[in-house]
Automatic annotation (TrEMBL):
InterPro entries: AAA+_ATPase, ABC_transporter-like_ATP-bd, ABC_transporter-like_CS, BCAA_Transport_ATP-bd_LivF, P-loop_NTPase
Tagged with keyword Heme: no
Native organism: Cryptosporangium aurantiacum
Residue intervals of the ABC transporter domain: 5-235
Pfam families xref list: ABC_tran (PF00005)
Keyword GTP-binding in record: no
GO molecular function, one term: ATP binding
CDD domains in the cross-refs: ABC_TM1139_LivF_branched
Protein name in the entry: Amino acid/amide ABC transporter ATP-binding protein 2, HAAT family
Keyword list, A-Z: Amino-acid transport, ATP-binding, Nucleotide-binding, Transport
PANTHER family hit by this protein: HIGH-AFFINITY BRANCHED-CHAIN AMINO ACID TRANSPORT ATP-BINDING PROTEIN LIVF
Length: 237
């Protein structure tokens, strides 16, 4: 079943510091939202708050007809929201196959199906199934992290700076992989410091500055002038 993520007036505090202030947006089924903003704007905080990793100081998070506001990370995950944190989050001492199995249900039939699906989406992982994850390239590790998340058939993936530190070719690969996930019906909340590719990928865009929404609208309306105004030279590329 398709569900809309509905975030209303979400606020997060770290002690006295307000990291997120009354942020609201929606992600309709099968669509992608790019969350942009300079360093420290609150992008990762937003991801952590949605997935239940940091407590909310105010606001609500609904997914379809479910209220996720107070749920634990495990329950948010079970509701279909999967968070890919900044950094790769794979187990370097385990093989590709072992990493993928960790993302899976115990049911044997579904397990085989899930692996088939992962290797169809990411053939390179199939070729490297016996290789230790720690010896994969950065891009391949990101792919593994995404493949593992997709094994549990999420409805929405929160991808936090997946392209961080990767060469442009590998960034292409990551966006291609996210695109495949989307074609399979998964919604995406994409956090990026660099705007260009994220906007090409997304339907909607939300720009954060110091924890507040400074602009939101259709991704194709976020022109260069606007990006320079909110993100500055360094991040508008
Ligand atoms: N655990 C924490 N305790 C205290 N302050 C924190 C904590 N995590 C983040 N912050 C602060 O909250 C603000 C938002 O941080 P956040 O990591 O969400 O920004 P970001 O937009 O993801 O930045 P970047 O692009 O640099 O990753 C920053 O000022 C940061 O220093």
């Amino acid at each position: 079943m398709s569900e809309t993520l509905q975030v209303s007036d979400l606020s997060v505090r770290y002690g006295a510091a307000q990291a997120l202030a009354e942020v609201s947006f929606e992600i309709p089924p099968n669509s992608a939202l790019a969350v942009l903003g300079p360093n420290g704007a609150g992008k990762s905080t937003l991801a952590r708050a949605l997935s239940g990793l940091v407590p909310k100081a105010g606001g609500t998070v609904r997914f379809g007809d479910r209220d996720l506001t107070k749920l634990s990370p495990a329950k948010v995950r079970r509701a279909g929201l999967v968070h890919l944190p900044e950094g790769r989050g794979v187990f370097p001492g385990l093989t590709v196959l072992e990493n993928l199995r960790m993302g899976l249900a115990v049911d044997k039939g579904r397990r085989a199906e899930g692996l088939d699906r992962a290797f169809t989406l990411f053939p390179v992982l199939g070729e490297r199934r016996r290789q230790l994850a720690g010896t994969l390239s950065g891009g391949e590790q990101q792919m593994l992290s995404l493949a593992r998340a997709l094994m549990i058939e999420p409805k929405l993936v929160i991808a936090d700076e997946m392209s961080l530190g990767l060469a442009p070719k590998l960034v292409d690969l990551i966006f291609e992989s996210l695109g495949r996930a989307r074609s399979a019906g998964v919604s995406v909340l994409l956090i990026e410091q660099f705007a260009g590719r994220a906007l090409d990928f997304a339907d909607q865009c939300l720009i954060l500055q110091r924890g507040r929404t400074s602009w939101s609208g259709p991704a194709d309306a976020a022109g260069e002038e606007l990006l320079h105004r909110y993100l500055g030279e360094a991040t508008a590329a």
